Amino acid sequence: MNHPGRDVVSEIEWMAELGMDFIDLTLEPPAAACHRINPERIRHALGEHGMEAIGHTAYYLPVANPFESIRRAAVEELKRCLDAFCHLGIKWMNVHPDRNAPMHERSFVIARNLLSLRDLIQTGRDCGVGVMIENLPGSFNTAKQLGELLDPLPEVGLHLDIGHCNLLTEFNTTDEIMAAYGSRLKHVHMHDNKGGSADLHLPLGTGTVDVAHHVRTLQSKGYDGTITLEVFSPDRHYLAHSRDLLRRTWDQCAGRAPVPAGTTEHRECAC
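Given the sequence above, the corresponding structure tokens read:
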């Protein structure tokens, strides 16, 4: 994912140099908001480096806000993102469900999210960009919780964040979410953490997220799409390490690469 405080084209260039296949393009301030970017430069850079992209948006847009004018403003910003992604040839955009409506019942929060999502779906349909929702720790992180949004809106895709599945829960919820909605999976985020409430975005293999297990879960559902490594470190060798670990684990679990005896990958993937 590009750093939203830096020039998008510069972000594309270093990712291409690192050998990344695509960019998780987030359109948010301060430097990457819709009104700040140059879509033609971005489109040219993607083409020049042979990279594809997936659409990401700011996690803090208040699409369930009790103030109608604020909710509508958030939706309008997301519509601008849809238009930008359409221009760039990007087919899917994520939306983070809004959990913040103090002193309101959950039913109100769900209804407001659905109202905003329905509006976005229509705009996305008109411009050829699908809408997917990302699971979030706390309020939208189990199959039951996500079902409150996914069941009424069969057109909405699932954006599974496996690191988030490991937070504020008794167990990692990836398996139950995939069992219920794996057929609607459009994109995946992977990063590591140590459970609890801290969304650390660590390199793979440095926390308690069982990478091999979740790779097998994805493969068992036939998923072979994009996976964003949300490793937030200024030292890019941690991102390269996570990329190599994920590719090696993916091939080993799929039976496409030899598994060195005695390694962690051998113990986890040989089943």
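Strands lie at 22-27, 52-57, 92-95, 130-134, 157-161, 185-190, 227-229. Try to locate this feature in the token string yourself.
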